[in-house]
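Reply to thread "Modeling small-molecule complexes from scratch"

Following up on the discussion above, here's a worked example others can learn from. I took a protein sequence and the SMILES for pyridoxal-5'-phosphate and predicted the complex. Inputs first:
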Amino acid sequence: MTENFSYFLELESSFGAPNYNPLDVVLEKGEGVWVWDISGKKYLDCLASYSALNQGHCHPSLQETVQNQAKILTLTSRAFRNTKLPELYETLHRFSGKNMFLLMNSGAEAVETAIKVARRWGYRRKKIPENKAEIIVCRNNFHGRTTTVISFSSEESYRADFGPFTPGFKIIPFGDANALRESITNETAAFLVEPIQAEAGVYLPPPSYLHEVEKICREKQVLFIADEIQTGLGRTGEKFCFERYGVKPDLITVGKALSGGYYPISAVLGDRETLGLMEPGSHGSTFGGNPFGCAIAKQALDIILKEDLIRKSKELGEYAMSLFREIPSKHIKEVRGMGLLIGIELDIPAREVCLKLMEEGLLCKDTHENVIRFTPPLVITKEEIDFAVGVFRKVLG
Ligand SMILES: Cc1ncc(COP(=O)(O)O)c(C=O)c1O
């Protein structure tokens, strides 16, 4: 096994661009909340691939969908129609209440698409002068890694030596509705926000924030865009996190768990007023809306509803947070979150703790030096949460 392990590590470090720093565990099998490394050691996955695996690893009914659809039809391009794309539209409509959808592949592409739609809406509906449309975003945001998206990141390591950047973005503090009100001009097309800043370290806004945001956007004729790529699809104890704050964004981006971990698929959810402004030729993607991805996404959404993962996420999230808060450790500064999107802030480097958790059978990921994210697949049971908290208690206690 040691030989095998160094073989994979060496191959990866000699050929792979070093843009990641993974924990040294080589996985080869996954089922539900569990994964196994090449020596057969079993771990509880407490990251769920940044919430892409809400339905758990290798979900049996998704496996069946993948196998069936792989035999029938996988790709048509949008040059021709297919049966699975309209079926997914209908499912997305029932799931979200929105009336128009645009399918892409990665999360960053969904965000790029939402930006294009917002700019177009700004020019055609709000009559913003040509090339002046501006989009307001929040400090410490994370919306992906493309050149335009990092143009409005406030994180230096995401941007260093990748300029020149795309203009047209203004950064304001997260959670500050007054800052939004003051920064809006006649040239503002949209406000793009994560309902909870997950990647930044699981930061929740003040309870009334999104309600004020919605009100300001309506008053000032600005589109309200919620990036639900990480917080959506059950993760925070509702279908979408914005529902927990009682608001209705104009555009929603989703990705990650829309694929149930099988195949990248993302979408912008909106209405005729916004997405209806995209005419043939304005946007596209060879794989966007392909029948293979659409069949998977439809099944992935069905699983979330059929298996009651939204209620589970809410109840088990509260249960897990209460247990984490009871851990008698001088190193835990704060436990915060919503549903099963939980951040545990430490006063010591989180990566060292993750390495110890790994030895004990938990796979966790540090974020921003001293926060550990606890975001397991939503199919986790109460007993598995007890096990995970027990390991944290042992390592941090
Ligand atoms: C809120 C949010 N938006 C966008 C993205 C980018 O998604 P992808 O990595 O699929 O491009 C992420 C990924 O972590 C995210 O958390």
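What I'd highlight from this example: The first strand starts at residue 27 and ends at 31. Residues 33 and 229 are 20 Å apart (CA to CA). Questions welcome below.
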